[in-house]
Amino acid sequence: VQLVESGGGLAQPGGSLRLSCEVSGEPFSTTSMSWFRQAPGKGREWVSTITPDNTIYLKDSGKGRFTASRDNSKNTHYLHMSGLKTEDPAMYYCTAGSDCFGGSYCGAPRGQGTQVTVSS
């Protein structure tokens, strides 16, 4: 499976970003997709999971601010982030299947990730 993340960048506190993850080599429409993040010097932190039937699970700190979506016609998974806070900066990665599902163990990143920076 190949995962290509994009959409990160610099946002102001309270701002928004939409991250994208393009997936190939995986039966995307029947695969759960997750996002996790890793800040310098910290461990991997699960952010969200979306199942094939569009059930969404979110880390408590992201509820009300983040949501996930998927476009099966584009084999692309999204993380919509709003109300960005100073604790959100990290490299964000997507992953597939049982990896990181619903907050379970997140394995090593398989894509290059996309950097999110929050600063005024």
Fold blueprint:
Elements: E1 2-6, E2 9-11, E3 17-24, E4 33-38, E5 45-50, E6 56-58, E7 66-71, E8 76-81, E9 90-96, E10 114-118
Parallel strand pairs: 2-10
Antiparallel strand pairs: 1-3, 3-8, 4-5, 4-9, 5-6, 7-8, 9-10
Characterization of the model:
This protein is mainly beta. 0% of the residues lie in helices and 46% in strands. The chain contains no helices and ten strands. It has a six-stranded mixed β-sheet, with no helix packed on it. A hairpin with a 5-residue loop joins strand 5 and strand 6. It is globular and about 40 Å long. The model has no long low-confidence stretch (mean pLDDT 96).
Keywords:
120 residues; mainly beta; six-stranded mixed beta sheet; four-stranded antiparallel beta sheet; 0% helix; 46% strand; globular
Number of H- or I-type helical stretches: 0
| Order of helix and strand elements from N to C terminus | EEEEEEEEEE
Query: Going across the major beta sheet, what is the strand order?
Result: 2-10-9-4-5-6
Calculate the terminal CA-CA distance, rounded to whole Å. Answer: 37 Å
Mean pLDDT: 96
Which class do the helix and strand fractions yield? mainly beta
Largest sheet: 6 strands, mixed
What is the share of helical residues? under 10%
Evaluate the radius of gyration.
Answer: 13 Å
Classify the beta-strand content into a percent band: over 45%
Number of strands: 10
> Based on CA inertia axes, which overall geometry fits?
globular
Q: Low-confidence parts lasting 5 or more residues at pLDDT below 50?
A: none
